[in-house]
Design brief:
mainly alpha
């Protein structure tokens, strides 16, 4: 498929009302980072779990995030490995995702005073260095 064919396909799809509706719904409440999760610590965990989640897996992801968000941050931070893995395993890359959650929890717990006091780019840089 060449670039022009691809552009034509995107053009046709983008004019469909069902596609427009889904784009707007996702804009207002992003499927990967739902707005009903307001604890910044949970949002950081969920943001990392969304890595390599495609639209094909979005319904599985939503179920996992819904289950995960039924817990408080402190509960997740104190979960044993088996319990946390039982929640996230349906997303695949289980060991990597588990290591990410543990690393993010350690980062959050060691830098809690850091949040809300620094620019977003500083926070992103710190996460990149430490998680």
């Amino acid at each position: 498929m060449n670039k022009q064919m691809f552009t034509n396909i995107i053009d046709v799809c983008s004019k469909q009302e069902s596609v427009k509706r889904e784009v707007l719904l996702n804009h207002d409440n992003n499927l990967w980072w739902p707005i009903n999760i307001t604890d910044y610590r949970m949002r950081l965990i969920i943001a990392g779990l969304s890595t390599r989640i495609s639209y094909n897996m979005i319904h599985t992801y939503i179920k996992v995030i819904s289950r995960l968000s039924s817990y408080q941050y402190e509960d997740i931070a104190n979960m044993d490995k088996e319990q946390l893995i039982s929640i996230i395993q349906k997303l695949g890359l289980t060991n990597n995702r588990y290591k990410y959650v543990q690393s993010m929890v350690n980062f959050i717990n060691s830098k809690d005073e850091f949040f809300g006091r620094n620019q977003n780019d500083v926070l992103v840089s710190e996460i990149a260095k430490n998680v």
